[in-house]
Amino acid sequence: MLIACTLLAAAGCSTTATDPRDPFEGYNRAMQSFNDFADDAVLKPVSRGYKAVAPEPLRNMVRNFFANIEDLPIGLNNMLQGKFLDGWTDWMRFVFNTTFGVFGINDIASEMGLEKHNEDFGQTFGRWGLGDGPYFVMPLLGPKTVRDTAGWVFDFSVDPLSEIRPIAARNTAYTVRFISWRTDLLGASTMFEEAALDRYVFLRDAYLQRRRSLVYDGNPPRPPRPQELQE
Amino acid sequence: MTRWIACTALALAAIAVQAQSALTPPDELVKAVMLEVADIIAKDKDIQGGDRAKTIAMIEEKALPHFNFVGMTALAVGPSWQKATPEQKKRLMEEFRDLLVRTYASSLTVFREQNFDFRPLRMKPTDTDVTVLVRVLQPGSQPVNIEYDMEKTTRGWKVYDVRVAGISLVVNYRTEFANVVRDNGIDGLISTLAAKNKTLASASTSAATSTPAAAKK
Question: B2-205 has which fold?
């Protein structure tokens, strides 16, 4: 009874906790407002500045450089999911791009037909059968689920950038990677703002759809189309 | 009388056969339309410069005829669709179409380098519901999948859902629409969509009128 009351109280802090996927809606909305504030105040201006200062070829090199390093943990996750050929491809990409691609700034592996993948521990856990868990907005990092937050802890621990020393250099690498990532999303975030009636709901549902698609490598099982809705 | 019926049946069959042969296969249709749109964008400086009105007009002319907006709206609205009156359905469809066209127009600016990989569709002649896959290849990133769910109609293959990177816009609106309908009914949803479109339209016209002026300076 006491537990039930506590749960009710926790649910009570959310405005309209009607979605079973999102029991922490109250907290999540507050955290997203904070993230939006930080985004508007710092990240967006910095990203626009980066876009204005760095010409596109340079930005491509920066993106490729970090994407190349990321192929190592991506390969690890493919291996953990039993997709050995994909994992092998990821590591071969790293070898070719690091050498012939000059420290990864040129993605020559893609031109060779070695396709880049998108994997992380959240997807690996999903592949192993773990459900999403409740939706959860992380401070600064934004939309996650409880499963993907746990995955992120693992991602973080195997992140090759975390090995960089001194600490100041490592933090600079983290920052540049983050800004490069945010700059690529400038167009998408504008689109989201235009498309959504309720941006919080829109972003949440898009995130959940996207993750589901990624866990199934782009081919999630789809429910049949409701017949009565056809024209 | 029997002769008349026979003639009519024959005529109808002829029309059906003609329509059948005139149907462009769904994957070829997608390819032709996407390449045409990409070509227009590549040549049109106004569209590249962010002229929203011109972009929307281009989409309405080139892409819109291949969409089944009634089906898309029905999917997005969900079970409440059945309870809507014909007039409400029409209004919902018009407002949702406007919103999707605007979103589509702004999405055209998102992709950096467009290098399409049109996947050939393996389909049986009897198939009436297929998914056409186009991949957008971008160096340094995983290819982005664009999937078109299409159904066969007498007027050709029509798109009833689009997924970009696994995200269906139609599905994405389902929760939002359900929330508005729950709180304010179907008319509430119509007015919410209309208000949203109005805001977007005024924002884009003010941007369109200010951009050329700024460019002249």
Answer: Nuclear Transport Factor 2; Chain: A, (3.10.450)
